[in-house]
Fold this protein.
Amino acid sequence: MAYTGTNGTAVPPWLDKGDNAWQMVAATLVGMQSMPGLVILYGSIVKKKWAVNSAFMALYAFAAVLICWVIWGYKMAFGERLLFLWGKAGLALSQPYLINRAKIPATMVIFSNYPPAAVLEPYYPMATMVYFQFVFAAITLILLAGSVLGRMNIKAWMAFVPLWLTFSYTVGAFSLWGGGFLYQWGVMDYSGGYVIHVSSGIAGFTAAFWVGPRLKQDRERFPPNNVLLMLAGAGLLWMGWAGFNGGDPYAANIDSSMAVLNTNICAATSLLVWTCMDSIFFGKPSVIGAVQGMITGLVCITPAAGLVQGWAAIAMGVVSGSVPWFTMMVLHKKSTLLQKVDDTLGVLHTHAVAGILGGALTGLFAEPHLCAFFLPDPESRGAFYKGKGGVQFLKQLAGAAFIIGWNVVMTSLILLVIRLVIPLRMSDEQLLIGDDAVHGEEAYALWGDGEKYDISKHGWSDETPSRRDSKDQGARGATIEL
């Protein structure tokens, strides 16, 4: 059925079908980074005995965040001001609210010496905005999970997700995007270098400290169970980043195109630099290393994607492919603290370090003309340009410091409260067995490291006619008699 563009129809006069279509596609691309991207990546990059548990942690977080988001989370991050760093909780479910034109931020923004900045009103409904912002919140929790794979109690994780979303994520989002004090101060975070990546990296490392380490044998040897499938998950993550950064102008415009191109340039450069570093210092290029370099490039460009020129994207790729490589491969091995904390996938390096670098470099490279496309402050620019660029660089560092401090404190408090009622770490017996002990399910019908044979679960029943025939061959499976 075709609708006309009159009031009271599904196509009101303010609706731009192109912008709405792109925003929904962008949201879907970001959602696919989590489901199935990180589900596949996590399920493949860990030991076989943790494939199901790792994938399920991502699956659960995606679903749980959505329900919390529409009931109270969205308005805490993007609603009317409650405090200088927090919005008022409220439902984002009612029909009148969702079908009206989107407005962001809901809190009036005032920059000193300038008239109040106009509230942005994209040409699509609030339903589109609520969903778009949800997929960002969800992937933040899923990235955080990478630090505690292979040992966090799944019930503790189930409690942690809504609590961390409420008391940590919404604060960062409101402060930097929703009209909070960092937004009004002019800290730049184009698409989540601070809100998503520094938050997940610092909170993940903090959570890893409180949860405790994996078993010794798992820390010493934790090979991926499927490298090719891991690459498939990484590919979904990379391609999905077009929605991650390309959707943040809230329109299908010039800035969106710049953001997508810069994102891919930086990711490719970072991957190549990381691979070269591996080849030079270890003698062999690593596939896992290439994926890590890809991720650090994507993370680093995120706070700057639509604000910098192409040459700056290459420069940021060189930095993101080398500095996190150094912190992970060299500094980590020399630091007592970093060695003590078992950050399973090195999220501190790939997200926190890369995100801080990206935010700082944004304060250097942000080009004034591009900033005018996206930022409300007409004086926004990096330190390489005349004006207040030097001050901007200091603001970027201060913004990172706030996100780091808030996440260390709040993540610790949340986990200490959960620990009062639910053990944060699985029992040693569960850690030895893996998925079968935790979920009663296994990723593959193959024997692997860390499994215990239990004839009542893994063998055939005495009534199975084929049992004797297969027993002598050491086979495990079923015989179909025709």
